[in-house]
Task: structure prediction
Amino acid sequence: MAITINGSGTIGGATTLSSNVTLADVTADTLTVDTTTLVVDEANNRVGIGTASPAVTFDVSGYARASSGILFGTDTAAANALDDYEEGTWTPNVYNNGQSSSWTTAVGTYTKIGNICTAHFHVDTGQSGATSGGALVLGPLPFNIAGMASGGRVLGTIYSSSLSNSPEPIFFYGGTSPYAQIWYSALSGQDQARTTGASGFVIYPVG
Amino acid sequence: MAIVKRTEEDKIEIVGQYKCIQVRTATVIEEDGVELTRSFHRHVVSPGDDVSNESAEVQAIAAVVHTPEVIAAYQEMLANQEINP
Result:
C-alpha cells in the first residue's frame, strides 16, 4: 500500500522504509538530522556534520577520519594521499657508539606527516660515554629510517657546549637503522667528544 | 565517576630489511569507560637489542624475526656505516 502525504504531515511512531527514499523537489529548506548531526544547506550548497551552520562546502565540527587518506585538488593517485599524521614522544639517547651513556633528562617529541618524521630531542646532565672512542650517535629514533635506496638520510641540527662545532648545523648520517651518527658540519669527521648535554632536531624519511 | 589511566601497545610493526620492530605505546585516560585523551610514545627495537624490558608480545616477535642471521647482518651494516675521516 502506498502512502502519499500531500502538504504537511507527521508520522509519530517509529517508521521503517525498506526501500530507497527519494526526496522530490527539495528546493527551499535545509535537511536537518538531530539538529547538528547532519545538515544539508541547500541554499548555499553546503553540508555540515556536527554543526547547524556549515560555513564551507563540507564543514565538520569534531574529528573526521579518512581511513585511506586525503587527496587534494583533482588528484586521484593513492601515492599522493595524505595518509598519516601522528604526534608523540620518544626517549632520545646520545652516546658514543659501543659505550654506555647516562642522562638524568632525556626527552623527545616527534611529528610524523606522511612519510617524513621531524623529531626533537634534549638530553642533559650526564655524559655520552668516554672522552674518545666510538662515533657519537643519536637514537633510536621514533621511527625506522628509510633505506638508503629511498633517500634514507637524516639531517638536522644539534647544540651542545661539548661539541667542537656547536651550535653550527651538524650532519647526521643514517641508513636503515633507527640510529644516526653525528658529524661535523664541515664533514671532517665524526664528532667523538664526550657531551654533557645536547639538544636539537632531525628530519628524515620513514621506512 | 571512575577515571582510569592505562597504557597499551596499540601498534607494533616490523619494518625494513633488518626487521626493526616499531612499537607505539598509547597512554589512554578514560572516564567511566569513555576515552578522554590518547597520547603516544614510540620506540624501535633493533636486532640484537636487549628486550628484557619489553612486553611479552614484543619479546615473542623479536624472538621470531631477530634471528642470528638478521642480527649478524644488522651488526655488519652498522659496522659499515662507521665512516672514518
Residues 86-205 of chain A form a domain with the Adenovirus Type 5 Fiber Protein (Receptor Binding Domain) fold (CATH 2.60.90). The mean pLDDT of chain A is 81. Chain A has two domains: 1-64, 86-205.
